[in-house]
Amino acid sequence: MSGKQKTKAKGEQAKGKAKEAIGRTVGNERLEAEGRAEQAKGDARGAKEKAKDVFKH
């Protein structure tokens, strides 16, 4: 996995978890949903890069 994309994926996942936790704490469902969506985006980016690595080798 390229270092830049891996870092970006991990950053999206962490940012999403933080948003979700804050949304849950303050009772903001929209912020919670945004956090879950951002985590999913990071997960998808990570999976894509892993798949590229598998076919590369």
Keywords:
91% helix, 57 residues, 2 helices, mainly alpha
Number of strands: 0
Average pLDDT works out at 91
Structural class: mainly alpha
The oligomerization state is single chain
Residues in helix, %: over 70%
Q: What is the number of helices?
A: 2
Report the radius of gyration as a whole number of Å.
13 Å
- What distance separates the N and C termini? 11 Å
Strand content: under 5%
Query: Which spans have pLDDT < 50 for at least 5 consecutive residues?
Result: none
Task: Indicate the overall shape.
Answer: elongated
Name the helix and strand elements from N-terminus to C-terminus, one letter apiece.
Answer: HH
Largest beta-sheet characterization: none
Please provide a written account of the structure.
By secondary structure, the chain is an all-alpha fold. The protein is built from two helices and no strands. Helix 1 runs antiparallel to helix 2. The radius of gyration is 13 Å and the shape is elongated.
